[in-house]
Design goal:
Nucleotidyltransferase, domain 5, alpha/beta, five-stranded mixed β-sheet, 353 residues
């Protein structure tokens, strides 16, 4: 079955053509450059960018797949969660193509697409059951995934998502947007890695939920009390960084990143032990972080019998290939949407035991 995937949940416009689990094309156009000056995604700008670029992305995806429209047998499109204006752009294209080509249309949950994106690794064989961790700018959640793409939510963030915390800390440190890549890069340059310590949030013994607002606030207070007082020019929350303090910023980035990643790893392996699962899958934008992959690999080595799977980095960020592949699998299992499909910005993952 040849499936056309469409992803427009946030600031990436993406269209793909997939066949089974083989990706024939996966074109992504990002509007992140337009949001940098604002320190985060502006919904109106993202929506306008989707409208401007989606047809060109669609044409390019079809061309690079070396297939024609008449070959498409299924349209899979993200219908939530996400920005409502952005979602509507992709859904409108999906509905139009479904109607004109007289092929089925299926809505795909964006979070689940990240969860199952590791199935795009053609060189690895992933089997059920597994514990899935989704870590991105908008979501941090743990799932127990069973056969036939059935999942149960085990825990989620109670406040900030992990990727959101990276963006906010980068803003505190005046490092720009998006925060994930720049904090990863600065953390790698840290010299005195044990010089800065931040507390971890304790949510109760055995809890599989997350909280990252505390670590973000701890960084803010550290900058205010330890750094700003000695070498920053401070006016309320506005300050300028001196060149002499840049090495300390690297150490702060390292301490923050390690703190967040240690929490993610501890909770994920705890879920695997509780449910006696031997496989772990990590997906979402934060999963592209090299240090996170290293730490999960180290934890897997210590555990001895748990294997960790990551998607290729190109499939960690928002992309249509993961939407197309998951949409096809769900279609084969009887799920249908049709032309009444609507955008659901707060769409939740339904527990299927």
């Amino acid at each position: 079955m040849l499936t056309l995937g469409i992803e427009t949940s946030c600031d990436e416009t993406s269209v793909s053509v997939t066949e089974e689990k083989k990706v024939l094309s996966n074109i992504v156009s990002s509007s992140v450059r337009l949001h940098k000056r604002y320190g985060g995604v502006v919904p109106e700008i993202a929506s306008r960018s989707h409208v401007e670029y989606i047809l060109e992305v669609f044409k390019t995806a079809l061309k690079e797949s070396h297939r024609s429209l008449k070959d498409i047998k299924l349209i899979a499109v993200t219908n939530g969660p996400g920005l409502v204006g952005a979602l509507l752009t992709g859904i409108s294209l999906g509905k139009s193509l479904s109607y004109c080509l007289k092929v089925p249309l299926i809505g795909v949950n964006h979070v689940l697409a990240h969860l199952y994106s590791a199935f795009l690794n053609e060189d690895e064989t992933l089997s059920f059951p597994f514990v899935g961790l989704v870590v991105s700018g908008g979501h941090t959640a743990l799932f127990l995934c069973g056969k036939n793409y059935r999942q149960k939510l085990l825990g989620q963030t109670l406040d900030d998502a992990s990727g959101e915390a990276f963006d906010k800390v980068a803003r505190i440190l005046r490092l720009g947007y998006p925060g994930g890549p720049v904090i990863e890069r600065r953390a790698r340059l840290a010299k005195e890695k044990d010089s800065v310590k931040f507390p971890k949030t304790f949510l109760g013994k055995g809890s599989l939920d997350f909280s990252f607002s505390g670590i973000k606030t701890a960084v803010l207070y550290y900058v205010r009390d330890r750094v700003v007082s000695t070498s920053y020019i401070v006016h309320s929350t506005s300050y300028e960084m001196g060149s002499a303090e840049k090495p300390l910023i690297n150490d702060i980035c390292y301490a923050f990143q390690e703190n967040v990643f240690n929490t993610l790893i501890e909770k994920t392996f705890l879920a695997a032990r509780i449910h006696r699962v031997k496989n772990i899958v990590v997906g979402g934008g934060v999963a592209a972080n090299t240090r996170l992959r290293e730490k999960f690999g180290e934890a897997s080595g210590f555990s001895g019998n748990v294997k960790v799977y990551f998607p290729k980095k190109e499939y960690c960020m928002d992309n249509a290939a993961m939407v197309g592949v998951l949409g096809e699998e769900l279609y084969k299992r009887g799920k249908r949407s049709g032309l009444y499909l609507s955008a659901e910005p707060n769409l939740e993952v339904v527990n299927v035991k």
